[in-house]
Write a structure and sequence with these properties.
There is one protein chain. This protein has two domains: about 110 residues, 2-Layer Sandwich (GMP Synthetase, Chain A, domain 3); about 30 residues, no CATH class. The N and C termini lie close together (about 10 Å). Helices cover about 45% and strands about 15% of the residues. By secondary structure, it is of the alpha+beta class. A three-stranded mixed β-sheet has the order 1-2-3, covered by helices on one side. Helix 2 crosses helix 4. Strand 1 and strand 2 form a beta hairpin. It is built from five helices and three strands.
């Protein structure tokens, strides 16, 4: 992602308009992705849109997708990135009365549930990740 767009995602607080568009996009993307999975025959995958962040100028949208089973997450995100033009067109058709311009979509794997599970396992196993942070691998900031 170009550096000029990073400052848009680093705003302190989202405006009311950004939150509204994020929720509309999240709902419509979830509907489209579920339809794609059903039509594609991937009955053993569960995909949910956990968060959508929209830039101040409403030109870019970061879409965080949670995938179960978690080991298929990177594969699903890469397939969604390949299908981005089609997904963007379908979302644009659903939101044509609410948005003038459809934001460009960027898909990311949301592995927060898996990370929470690792913390639980470490605590239940008698090891404390708070006192020994080396028990869990470092998370990348996105």
């Amino acid at each position: 992602m170009p550096k000029q767009y990073l400052s848009y995602f680093c705003t302190m607080e989202e405006s009311q308009r950004q939150r509204k568009i994020s929720s509309v996009l999240q709902k419509d993307l979830a509907q489209i992705l579920n339809r794609l999975l059903k039509d594609g025959g991937a009955s053993n995958l569960i995909v949910s849109v956990t968060k959508v962040s929209v830039t101040v100028d409403l030109s870019l949208a970061k879409v965080y997708v949670s995938v179960f089973p978690a080991d298929k997450g990177t594969q699903v995100v890469s397939e969604l990135s390949a299908l981005k033009p089609s997904i963007k067109h379908q979302v644009a058709l659903l939101t044509k009365n609410q948005l003038r311009k459809m934001p460009d979509l960027s898909f990311f794997n949301d592995d927060s549930l898996e990370y929470i599970g690792q913390i639980e396992q470490a605590v239940k196993g008698g090891q404390n990740p708070i006192t020994d942070p080396s028990l869990l691998e470092r998370r990348k900031k996105s």
